[in-house]
Amino acid sequence: MKEKIGTNAGLVWNVLSSGQSNLKDIKKETKLLEKDLYAALGWLAREGKVDFNEVEKEIFVYLL
C-alpha cells in the first residue's frame, strides 16, 4: 500500500510541478480516485512538500 501511495504522490507532484492547482483539476489530471488522491496529498504534506490554500471555499495545492 505504501508503494501505491508513493507512486500516486509522484503523479500529484508532476501535476503540481507546473504550478498551483485545485483539487478538482489534480484529480482530473491524475485520474486518481478521491481516496487515493487524498492519501497522496497526505504523503506529500507529511514530507513538507506541499501546502494548501483555501480561496472562496476552493482548496488549492502548491509545492513548497
The share of residues in extended strands comes to 15-25%
User: What Rg is obtained from the alpha carbons, in whole angstroms?
Assistant: 11 Å
CATH class: Mainly Alpha
Number of strands: 3
Poorly predicted segments: none
The H-and-E topology, N to C, reads as HEHHEE
According to CATH, what is the topology?
Arc Repressor Mutant, subunit A
The number of distinct structural domains comes to 1
Identify the CATH homologous superfamily: Winged helix-like DNA-binding domain superfamily/Winged helix DNA-binding domain
Mean pLDDT, all residues: 97
Q: What's the story with the biggest beta sheet?
A: 3 strands, antiparallel
How would you characterize the overall build of this protein?
There is one protein chain. The chain is an alpha+beta fold and 64 residues long. The protein has one domain (2-63): Winged helix-like DNA-binding domain superfamily/Winged helix DNA-binding domain (Arc Repressor Mutant, subunit A), CATH 1.10.10. 56% of the residues lie in helices and 22% in strands. The chain contains three helices and three strands. Strand 2 (50-55) and strand 3 (58-63) form a beta hairpin. Helix 1 (2-16) crosses helix 3 (34-46). It is globular, with a radius of gyration of 11 Å. The termini are far apart. The mean pLDDT is 97.
